[in-house]
Amino acid sequence: MPPQLVTLHSLDPQRLAAEAAQGLLRPQAALPPKFFYDALGSRLFDAITLLPEYDLTRNEAALFATHRSAIAAAVGAAGATLVDVGAGSGAKAAAWFAALGTRRYLALDISCDFLAGALDALAGAHPQVAMCGVGLDFTAALALPPELLSGPALVFYPGSSIGNFAPAEALALLVQMRQLAGPGGALLIGVDLLKPVAEMEAAYDDALGLTAAFNRNLLAHLNRLLGSDFAPRQWRHRAVWNAATQAVEMHLHAREALTVRWPGAERRFAAGEGIHTENAHKWRVEAFAALLRRAGFEAVQTWTDAGERFAVMVGR
After folding, report:
1. C-beta of residue 249 within 8 angstroms of C-beta of residue 276
2. Which residues contact 192 (CB under 8 A, 6 or more apart)?
3. Which domains can be identified in the chain, with CATH numbers?
């Protein structure tokens, strides 16, 4: 059976442009990380995951491979329906189909067009799994109509993307995940842990400059989306640990005083003034387990690597 495709939120360029303009005009200019991910930004991020400084993806993959059977046992019957939040290509989720006995796969992503191609590839390799791609901006609301999901499910949120949300925002998202999982359901999530500050900063400011290019590419994306006239060379990448918020912050700082214009508006930046482009919050295991319990999950189980650099957690 070919994959089903459902659009709940359309990718509206005008709405995205308005959101970008609003962020640029704030007293402290700030944009959400979703603006990183145009075609080039996605490929740059894939390259970042191969860097020696950025070990999050490798640590999670190793934990999944080492503890797959134990994690599947912790998930139990909830894994028969797998809901992949921010699915992308779906490759991470597909690696779990056999271990979980997955019979239905719901892939949630902002771009339904991208999901169509990804699911066609997955369906050929996994004909036993019924697949549905759902175009959804889960940062706005994470909910599915009952005709798409009824009964317990495993909500899958790997990669430590939860770190992009401040603790209060993360709690609100986890509450929605708990509701999505339903009675008898579960959550499987990846969480990056606290490390020495120099190592955390290096993960977001690598020696080859890939993360700097990833950050500045956001400006090129804005130029196409908003009609602005950013010149990426005029901006300096900076990644810094904020001890108060327990997050690595990424910024772009103007190298000189400049004005950025787009149809109907402009923003003046003083030399050194920045645009806040990402927060990457880091957690201690016990603190994140407590957050899961506050969101309504119980029987939280955790797997970490020997150095306790990354955690994979299941909440029922």
Report:
1. yes
2. 56, 160, 163, 280, 282, 283, 309, 310
3. 29-52+197-281 (no CATH), 67-193+283-315 (3.40.50.150)
Place of tokens 């130029």: 223
Instruction: Find where tokens 């925002």 sit.
Output: 169
How does pLDDT run across 20-74, given as a tens digit for each residue?
A: 999 999 999 999 998 998 889 988 998 999 999 999 999 999 999 999 999 999 9
In angstroms, what is the C-alpha Rg of the chain? 20
In 3D space, the residue among 19, 50, 8 whose CA is nearest the CA of residue 221 turns out to be 19
CA distance 298 to 14: 41
> Measuring CA to CA, how many Å separate 30 from each of 19, 149, 170, 218?
10, 35, 18, 12
Which residue bears the tokens 């290096």?
Answer: 202
Taking the C-alpha atoms of residue 276 and residue 238, their distance in angstroms, rounded to an integer, is: 10
The rounded Cα 84 to chain-centroid distance in angstroms is: 11
The answer for residues whose C-beta is within 8 angstroms of residue 269's C-beta and 6 or more apart is 29, 254, 257, 258, 259, 260
- Name the token pair of 121: 């590839």
For residues 25 and 271, what is the distance between their CA atoms, to the nearest angstrom? Answer: 17
- In this model, does residue 268 exceed pLDDT 90? yes
